[in-house]
Amino acid sequence: MQIQVPRGTQDILPGQVEKWHYVEAFMRQVAHEYGFQEIRTPIFEHTELFLRGVGETTDIVEKEMYTFADKKGRSLTLRPEGTASAARSFIEHSLYAQPQPTKLYYIGPIFRYEAPQAGRYRQHHQFGVEVFGSPYPVTDAEVILLAVDLFSRLGLNQLTVHINNIGCPECRAAFRDALVAYFEPHRSELCSDCRSRLQRNPLRILDCKQQRCGQIVQEAPEISDFLCSGCQDHFNDVQRYLAAAGVKYEVDTRIVRGLDYYTRTVFEVISTDLGAQSTVCGGGRYDHLIETVGGPATPGVGFGMGIERLLLTLEQNNCYLPGTKIPDLFFATLGEAAQVTAFKLLLPLRQAGVTALMDQMGRSLKAQLKYANKLGARYVAILGESELAEKKVQLKQMSDGREWVLPLEDLVARISEEEA
Description:
This protein is an alpha+beta fold. Helices cover 38% and strands 21% of the residues.
């Protein structure tokens, strides 16, 4: 029986991987321009990090983590999100002792056992940014602006930012009590997950995707009625900064996000092109996460975006994405001496930045020319016995059929100039 990739994973093949390189290059460029530095953390961590950091009552921890025991019986988990790992690294390497804020970004695989959906896989890839050390609303706004700026540069301009403030532990306590009081009479109507959440984490009910739960949520209390003055002022300032930068946003009091560590600002960037799965980026503030996982009191804010979902959105919006890179030059040779000479010339061509290939399948000259055309090569350099004798090469431009005869020693310079 043929072995296939596990459900919820995929191979990223030539023709597709170039699109990934293109998008990732934009991510790195924009992150660097905003003062972020790249961090790379392990793919697996001690399970306790996610239990404490993400929250034991979240769907991620309860249902979606890939957890296993190593040979010494220690519980390890493939990372289901990137923030907790970045927080652990921030603490472990004492980055808090450096001038603050610490601005980090990462690109890498994320693992969640969930039903595969459009643009979402059990192993998917995430671009995320984290800012540790700043409690100020200008930092929240800058993180949101970075995401919007990135989308805009990639060609997505019809997106909406939805923002909310879910309060701090002090003002959220009263909101929690109000939610319990509201949902308790509806207990029998709630799904089994939400009945379990009712006492443990009632805010999670607001994020339920079940139809009946969604109907009940429509009349539930809103956090905006319970915000303390500090949280309300913070939210007002975030909106003021976003407006100053020209970011279009909507206040959405039903956004709570799916992770327990969020405080105050939460946000999502919404696209209508993916149907129900419309969030292409989400994040928020997490002022107590560093303490929760064992570090000093340090505020933080960040976001994560799925690269697969972003690529799907770009394709649906007909945004530019590159295809397979075509060779600049293909050597078509006749005879062993010509093959050796062509092989010798490949190195200086490649070192000059030219994508240069030659036949490695023993094809006839006619078949080599046909193959070069199929590859879409810009130029073909024909080298046979007569060309070798004269120390020349016949160069053909495939787009219009123009031909030149050049001294062999001029080929590298000529092609390098053409491709500069």
